[in-house]
Amino acid sequence: MTTPLLQVSNLRKTFPIPGGLLGRIKAEVNAVNDVSFDVARGEVVGLVGESGSGKTTVGRTLLRLEEATSGTVNFDGTSVLDLPPEKLRSFRKQMQIIFQDPYASLNPREKVRDILSHPLKLHGIGSREDRTDRVVSLLEKVGLGADQLDRFPHEFSGGQRQRIGIARALAVEPQFIVADEPVSALDVSIQAQVINLLEDLCQDLGLTMLFIAHDLGVVEHFCDRVIVMYLGRVVEMGRSVDLYSNPNHPYTQALLSAVPQPKPGRRKDRIVLKGDIPSPINPPSGCVFRTRCPLADAECAKVVPVLKDLGNGHKSACIKTT
Amino acid sequence: MPAALIDSIPATARPAEARTLLRVKDLQTTFRTGGNSSVRAVDGVSFDLDPGETLAIVGESGSGKSVTSLSLMGLLPKDTGSVTGGSMRLNGFEMRGFSEEEMRAVRGKQIGMIFQEPMTSLNPVKTVGWQIMEMVMHHEKLSRRAAYRRAIEMLDLVGIPEPARRVDNYPHQMSGGMRQRAMIAMALSCEPRILIADEPTTALDVTIQAQMLELMKDLQDRMGMAIIFITHDLGVVAEVADRVVVMYAGQVVESGEVEQIFEAPRMPYTAGLMNSIPRIGASRRKERLRAIPGTVPPLSDLPHGCRFNPRCAHATELCRATPPALEEVGPGHAVRCARWRDITLDIMDTE
Questions:
Q1: ipTM of the complex
Q2: Which among A214, A231, A263, A269 is the top mutation candidate for probing chain B, defined by the most B β-carbons within 10 Å of its own β-carbon?
Q3: Which of A283, A297, B153, B314 is the most exposed place for a label (fewest CB within 10 A)?
Q4: What pTM does this model have?
């Protein structure tokens, strides 16, 4: 068994909420709570959850766009969370991110040429002429062309802009990419184009990817393994085939049954959860899902369920179903 | 008062044609884009809405689906957009040419509307209860006290817990899901005959979306209103719609019963949309997604002939030369494709 490329252990991130007397900390948001998982080299792992689940914070913490409160992240032998600032920049060559909003993540005053050569300059890759060649080949990789070098982001459609965002992440030839909802802002007919592109890139470049999304259909299609989060905690994880065909956690079951399917005729087997997702400022005791869970009883308020292995790396955190 | 007039004629007394609740015919909506130029965001859209049915209008950004609904509601931005052609008959009464005052009587009373983001239709500085009271006091001339009671009833109806307490809440004191419910309560407080829902669940998490779809279905069963459901999500369409209108670049490109549209679409664009969404359970074979190539054309630079032709695998010289008409292909099923007789569309197996 080879060591995973990325090992995340007991990751925790709390955000203080100021506002008490004299600007003291009034409360804390438990955005990510005791999250552990591995990603093998060349694997595409989906991280799914609804708003407030902490999925985006996990991704940002791995790249140190947010500083973790505690826990460890080991990437190819490097302890990421302990890297001093001067080493962080060169380390970031290894790990890049693709953002959700292709409109907000590109500088509107820069030409594509500059957007894509910045990361190269920053990491001292190539000479000036060399860099232009590299930028052109990046554009070609994502389905654009050299004739688009001197255009500004507003001259592109949403899908093309996301392609530029992908090219920028690929510029420094990272091993690992966090893709944070990369297709959510795109029209249906464009989503499929971008997913196909990401699939090709993963295959051709041997990329490892953490794919953060709320669209369960996209995740099943694209990811080898899936991690399901709810209110800052991992509730279930496993290979896509296992998790989708045999979801164990009551939350995963409800989540999968809630997705409207493009097949007419009303579904009879839907589990409709009651109530809203609780606030992560004051999450329920014991199991965080118990306030909406059809199976919950008094016991669930007392025990924080641990992830139990169901075989094949399929794990679920529920005292009722495991 | 036309709103009163619209109400005054019992449906049974009207000719059969007028029993259609809403008849939109060749609707054209034009936006000025600066200088002398303009674009036609809605170009010849027609559909009928029967009492109590759910019609889904589906399309991508720029298809004109939202502009269609804003045109119906008389909510186009005054300085740039206007209805420039066609007709919109509500219970047989032509709404085109209604004054602002007449439209106010239609909005809320005859046609209610909910939006993607509840904060765009809720006033942040007034309590939720007061906003419902304003509606029913204006349209139904209820007393303050009766209006307050109605507000509580409405909040209860949409499943807001402790409605007698929540009625005095401001929107920011409610969760996102509760605000969505409050907005629905407001839109339905005068029991409109038509509810226009513009992407009402798009910003919601999937478990909350399931609650909202259930709620809307339940309210429709109880109150009998017709719903125009505007969305880009084909899963939601399959779930809620009786009939479907598919729009592309300002035009209706296919319309029909929900089963016809999903099981036997005749327009390559409709079939392309279906094939491009990854469905749960369908991708275990790890098939590549069948994407539609290219992008939606800008309204200012539409292709010649069929507007979909540059992205269509079946396009020929004919498609590039002549804009196709919307043709009937079967009972209640129409398609805007010159080649519908010649081509077979392949729909990805869903099982």
A1: 0.87
A2: A263
A3: A297
A4: 0.90
